[in-house]
Amino acid sequence: KQEVTQIPAALSVPEGENLVLNCSFTDSAIYNLQWFRQDPGKGLTSLLLIQSSQREQTSGRLNASLDKSSGRSTLYIAASQPGDSATYLCADGMSARQLTFGSGTQLTVLP
Amino acid sequence: EPEVTQTPSHQVTQMGQEVILRCVPISNHLYFYWYRQILGQKVEFLVSFYNNEISEKSEIFDDQFSVERPDGSNFTLKIRSTKLEDSAMYFCASRAGTGVSGEQYFGPGTRLTVT
Question: How many CB pairs under 8 A join A and B?
Answer without folding.
Answer: 57
